[in-house]
Design the sequence.
């Protein structure tokens, strides 16, 4: 059984918190993918909830995390209605 992956979008208050967080995320061996979006001061990462949730909590506790969203990755779209 394959674990569900989630996309996490993390937005930070200042560039130093963003840089520190990116170091944690990019060094984590169980993060499937991540991107660093400097103008928006945000990181997008792809991980299983068992990895992503504790990582987000750690970044929050370190300070500077202003906003976080998460959603399932690769979920099947809702079936279209046919007439």
Sequence:
């Amino acid at each position: 059984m394959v674990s569900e992956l989630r996309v996490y979008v993390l937005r930070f208050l200042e560039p130093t918190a963003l840089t520190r967080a990116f170091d944690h995320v990019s060094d984590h061996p169980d993060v499937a993918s991540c991107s660093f979006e400097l103008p928006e001061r945000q990181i997008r990462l792809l991980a299983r909830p068992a990895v992503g949730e504790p990582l987000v909590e750690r970044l929050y506790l370190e300070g500077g995390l202003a906003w976080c969203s998460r959603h399932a990755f690769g979920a099947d779209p809702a079936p279209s209605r046919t007439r």
Strands lie at 6-12, 33-37, 42-47, 65-72.
